[in-house]
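Let's study a protein:

___
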Amino acid sequence: MLKNVIAPIQAWLLTKGQCVGCGTALSKGERSVKDKTSERVTCKCGRIFIYDKKTKVYHRALFSEV
C-alpha cells in the first residue's frame, strides 16, 4: 500500500532531476563516467543514480550497476 503512494512521487522527482531521498538537484552530485552513454551520479546523501546521456533521464542504480 505505501509503495503505491511513494513510487509515483519518486518517479516525478527523478523526471525533475532531483534525488528521491533528500530532494537535492542531481546536477550537483558527484559524477563519474560509467561508459560512453551513461554517468554514475552520487548524491550528497549517498544514493547512487545512473544518468543516460542519450535520453537525458536518471534512474536509481541497480546492484549490478554499482
Remarks:
- Residues 2-60 form one domain.
- Residues 38 and 52 are 5 Å apart (CA to CA).
